[in-house]
Amino acid sequence: MAEKMIKQIIEALLFVGQKPLTMDDLRQALDGLNEDKIKEAIYELKEDYLKHERSFGIAELAGGYQIVTNPEFAPWIGKLFRREETKLSAPSLETLAIIAYKQPLTRSEIESIRGVNVEGVLKTLLDKNLIKVRGRKNAPGRPIAYGTTEEFLKRFGLKGLESLPRLRDFSEHDLEFDKEGEKLLEVEPLKEVDENASGQESAQNRPD
Questions:
Q1: What is the tens place of the pLDDT at every residue in 166-202?
Q2: CB contact at 8 A, 175 and 139
Q3: Parallel/antiparallel/unpaired status of strands 175-177 and 183-185
Q4: Which residues pair with 69 in a beta bridge?
Q5: In a shared domain, residues 173 and 154
Q6: Average pLDDT in the 134-140 region?
Q7: Where are the alpha helices (DSSP H) in the chain?
Q8: In terms of residue numbers, what domain contains 135?
Q9: How far is CA 34 from the centre of its chain?
Q10: In the predicted model, what is the mean pLDDT of residues 37-42?
Q11: Average pLDDT in the 77-99 region?
Q12: Angle at which helices 35-51 and 3-16 pack, to 10 degrees?
């Protein structure tokens, strides 16, 4: 298969993809083509888009690749696709950050860190598909443990959990104490990606 043809096929696959395509997805569509050749073609496509100053590029999100628009075009995209406000509240973001860094975690473990009841927040995060049940912990009562989802990675523009902002090395300086002496782990806040504001809109995304 000609090199040019490989690039064109990958470009077509990424263009029609409704979600980030993994390397396995691409290899399957390309009849088991070598991973290095696929990565080389993706790199060349990225360079082509930059060279010709295209309004979009290829981003690595949630363990896969996706064509997204460049951030500077966000104002115009926002005017065309006006979406209902779905930003997360501060309590939801804080709880989500704790789960992201320390997963899998049970509700009681999260509450011991935050110092407040998180039942409602967990329901919100589950409804938005940002967290999911990861199983049960081997502890009295076999409590449910939660972890993040691929939707979480996409919403925050992360390639994988390894791309999370660095959590500072755990020490006494990283602890705060409330009036009852509960330990509250201080984590670096997550920044939610607003698809319209960032301009990183999938080429196939449309309002629901």
A1: 765 333 333 333 333 333 344 444 555 544 444 444 5
A2: no
A3: antiparallel
A4: 56
A5: yes
A6: 88
A7: 3-16, 23-29, 35-51, 74-80, 90-102, 107-114, 119-127, 150-155, 195-198
A8: 90-194
A9: 27
A10: 94
A11: 80
A12: 80
